[in-house]
Design brief:
Distance between the termini: 122 Å
Structural class: alpha+beta
Number of helices: 2
Order of helices and strands: HHEEEEEEEE
Oligomer: single chain
Helix content: 25-40%
Largest sheet: 5 strands, antiparallel
Length: 194
């Protein structure tokens, strides 16, 4: 009968300590890379959402101003409740008043939001006070209205209003800010007689 040594003949089963340490280290590296990617994409998503809210808010305010300016008249670079055609081509104004599309006085200005303290675009109908048109997380730092009226034009032209705005979209969670600036010109439209 042949006798064998059990320790040399028997194959060991399981992982060595080195293999376990290597596997745990490899898993940790993959987990750190994955977590970094997740945090980066979450931050980018929040920034994108903040920018989208700012653009939507500014789009709403711009649509409101454009509607009244295109179909309004008597553009005045002041908060005059009875606007008269008044040109302010060179210096501009933070406020504009006009007779709006509905025949009532409409005024626009840069105001301050009471809760956030940020600058906002406001509208008033001259009766019910100022309404904030932009989101509290959008800070309007600068707004100017430049009126180019038909008074001084030769030959006569349609009146135009140039609107220039600068500001920041502020993420309320992270306080990250995304600056923006835009400028647009709105020309009065006249109804064609039929």
């Amino acid at each position: 009968m042949h006798m064998c040594n059990n320790t040399t003949q028997q194959k060991e089963k399981g992982f060595t300590l080195i293999e376990v340490i290597f596997a745990v280290a490899l898993f940790a590296v993959v987990a750190v890379v994955a977590l970094g990617t997740l945090l980066t994409s979450t931050t980018a998503n929040r920034k994108s959402k903040t920018e989208r809210v700012a653009l939507d808010s500014l789009g709403f305010a711009l649509d409101d101003m454009t509607q009244n300016i295109r179909f309004g008249n008597n553009y005045d670079c002041s908060s005059n409740p009875i606007p008269t055609e008044n040109e302010c081509l060179w210096v501009g104004s933070e406020t504009i008043s006009l007779i709006g599309a509905g025949g009532t006085t409409v005024m626009y200005q840069r105001g301050v939001h009471p809760s956030s303290g940020y600058g906002v675009i406001q509208r008033s109908d001259g009766v019910s006070g100022w309404l904030n048109l932009t989101d509290p997380n959008v800070s309007i730092d600068f707004i100017r209205f430049y009126v180019i009226s038909s008074i001084s034009a030769s030959p006569p032209r349609f009146p135009r209003v140039l609107i220039s705005v600068r500001g920041r979209a502020v993420n309320s969670d992270t306080k990250a800010e995304t600056p923006f600036a835009f400028q647009t010109t709105v020309t009065k439209r006249f109804a064609i007689p039929q």
